[in-house]
Amino acid sequence: MAIATAAAYGIYSQDAELADIVRSLNQAGFENEDICMMLAPTHPIASAVRDASLFSSDKQDSAASAGMIGWLSAFGAVLIPTVGFFIRSRVFLHALMVARETPALCGNVRTLVGLGFSEDDAARFEDQLGRLGVLVYVSCPESAKTLWAREVLRHTGARETNTLEETIMMSAAAMATAA
């Protein structure tokens, strides 16, 4: 089951300040639960999650790890291939379960298909994520808000932005032309 097409997305480089992007989305009226992030396994946050130890003898390291895990857990979903995932939203949980029969919930084309992307777009985005680092996906309660979400993502420095509905229409048009 894919999420409805009322969504916008942006692809960012690994050095993008995710806290600033989230803050901009929040100020524009989007809740953390509506935000899904996919991070490349090479992203600095992925390294921090991989190395997190809540039971470290260094209390400062433990506090930093707990703070990072707490921040990631506040979103609808955060997926880091080969590292782990955090899912708070039932909507994202159901959509992302399409990947349950594959080796890892987070880290393949099926995960992006679960969010509503076509197989071709999902493969392209998976490749871009490996090179660039971050996909931020904003599920919108109303389709009218998707254009606003796209503009916020563009304003925060996304290298590629669009609404899911427009991406689906472009993919369908491309398939019709090829046929």
Distance between the termini: 27 Å
Low-pLDDT stretches are none
N-to-C SSE string, H for helix and E for strand: EHEHHEEHHHEHEH
Question: What coarse outline follows from CA principal-axis ratios?
Answer: globular
How much helicity do the residues have? 40-55%
Quaternary structure type = single chain
Nearest-integer average pLDDT: 81
Total strands: 6
Order of adjacent strands in the largest pleated sheet = 4-3-2-5-1-6
As a percent range, the share of strand residues is 15-25%
What is the SS-derived class? alpha+beta
From the alpha carbons, calculate the radius of gyration and give it in angstroms: 16 Å
Helix count, per DSSP?
A: 8
Q: Outline the biggest β-sheet.
A: 6 strands, mixed
Describe the structure using short key phrases.
179 residues; alpha+beta; single chain
How would you describe this structure to a colleague?
The chain is 47% helix and 17% strand. By secondary structure, it is of the alpha+beta class. It has a 6-stranded mixed beta sheet with strand order 4-3-2-5-1-6, with helices on both faces. The protein starts with 6 loop residues before the first strand and ends with a helix.
Topology:
Layout: E1 7-13, H1 18-27, E2 35-39, H2 44-50, H3 59-73, E3 77-80, E4 84-87, H4 90-96, H5 109-114, H6 119-131, E5 133-139, H7 145-155, E6 160-163, H8 164-178
Parallel strand pairs: 2-3
Antiparallel strand pairs: 1-5, 1-6, 2-5, 3-4
How would you concisely characterize the structure shown here?
The protein has 179 residues and is α+β, with helices and mostly antiparallel strands. It has eight helices and six strands; from the N terminus they run βαβααββαααβαβα. The radius of gyration is 16 Å and the shape is globular.
